[in-house]
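Limitations
The structure tokens in this dataset are predictions for the assembled complex, not deposited experimental models. Users should treat interface geometry with appropriate caution, especially where small molecules or nucleic acid strands are included. An illustrative entry is reproduced here so readers can see what is and is not provided.
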Amino acid sequence: MNRFKWFYHPVFIFAFSIIALAASLCLYVYWYIGVSAGLTSVIQKYNLDPSQFFEINTWVVILVLSILVGIILIGVFVIFIYNQKTWQLYRLQRNFINNFTHELKTPVTSLKLYLETFAHHDLSREDQIKYVRYMIHDVERLLNNINRILNLARIESGNYWKDFVEMDLVGTVRQFYQNNADLFRNCEVKIHNPVGKPLYYPINPLLFDMFLMNVMTNAVNYNESDHPRVDVRFIPQKKGIHIRFEDNGVGIEKSEIKKIFRIFYQVGNQDNMTATGGGLGLYLVQQIARIHRGRVTAESEGKGKGSVFALTLPRRVQVGG
Amino acid sequence: MTGLTLKKRILIVEDDGHIAEGLKLNLTLKGYDVMIAPDGPAGLREWREWKPDLIVLDIMLPRIDGLSVLRSIRLHDERIPILILSVKSEPEYRVKGFSYGVDDYLSKPFNLEEFLLRVERLLTRVAWNGHAKKPEEDLVQEYHVYTFGGNTIDFETYTAHCRQGTLTLTEQEVTLLKLFIANRGKPLSRSELLEIGWGYTGTTSTRTVDNFVMRLRRYFEDDPHSPVFFRSLRSVGYVFDHDLH
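Predicted assembly:
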């Protein structure tokens, strides 16, 4: 059965239909020329008036045929491209489900492990508290994962266009850092604002918080440095505000820089099971930037050289409405 | 029985800190000596240096995945009991694990009691077989001498009789040869060779692999420029193969 697999492969079918189409065009032309040559000889034999038969020029017929075949070709090509895209998305989605199962099962495993331990052993109060904290943390991990999926659904449905509030961006970032200090326990976070005064900008606080959560935790999670650090720089520009999140983490391979924002995309290799991340975070980041009419880009000197995520927000535009 | 007086050592290779610590807690309460390695390379290092009696291995690990760790260990030690503990529960992963020589496979989330009993059972088996810590003996039995083409490799004395005459092989050359022999006829990618044969990944250049294969060719091929045994596979890596006599 396996031997015939190539036969069903879309590339093969595509190539085959193109060859068939090209062959049929050649045959049309060949026959047409043959028939008209035959006709000419008949006309000459019986001394008929050629204009009666050749009102349309041979070349016009060939041209029309070619255009029609060309249109069919383009149609086939478009279908082919769509098919490939659908497959790609399907594969990505399958990868994503595989990986997301991992993200969901890991905290559940941990929870179950500690609950069973409690059922079997009498631990000291101190230990109990320590492990209960772990369990709370695991529950939070689970919740975060569930929220990411729900947020994705909400963003995709486009229900976020209202709820924009004029807020100080620097203050928001600082507030975010203070609220989530436990996530950055081993990490040095510095906020640089050369202007020294608040930068007001209309944002959706909930979405912006999600943006910060994804970008900043990535900087910490994908960091193998002994002293992880994140520098947040606010750079006011003529055209708007530029915010840079610079980290000294694992960096991004040049070939990956554009791909990382794709939905379900994971850095690493699915086959050798070093793929990491849920493939949602940066997609959300990009969508949130778009909702704010901004743009987010990634920069990195390469693997192991840290990375920069830059958010560019355009000069005050009326968002929403 | 000296085994009773000595605490059995268990190495946990697991990247999730909470799970690793939970396992450690339970195994320690059972009276085992436990160590945690958070990624593939650390796992391999601890296996070599700390010499555990049993390894609990996760598959999805940073840097070097669990299956490569398993294969790497099995090149040197056929006997040490290894239990895979993974989120991957599909039969294909189980089959893969067992084909690479794992002793037991549990999928997460697992039942704690079952896990502890399985660990105990694996260690009891080793105790029956007597010596747990003489891994070299198995290899000697298995590969004592390996012959292909006009070459003979003696894995006990690390010597090779080949077209260059008799020469002494380095530890790394022997490891790589074992890896090739264990996978005779199967293509091995450069990163596989690097991960399993050397035990590290990423930034280290795959050129290292090329250089070593060149060296093996010089030793064992009649014409190193048109190799018969250690062939290159375009955009894949290398394959070792030869006719059986």
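Some entries come with short summary sentences. For this one: The radius of gyration of chain B is 19 Å.
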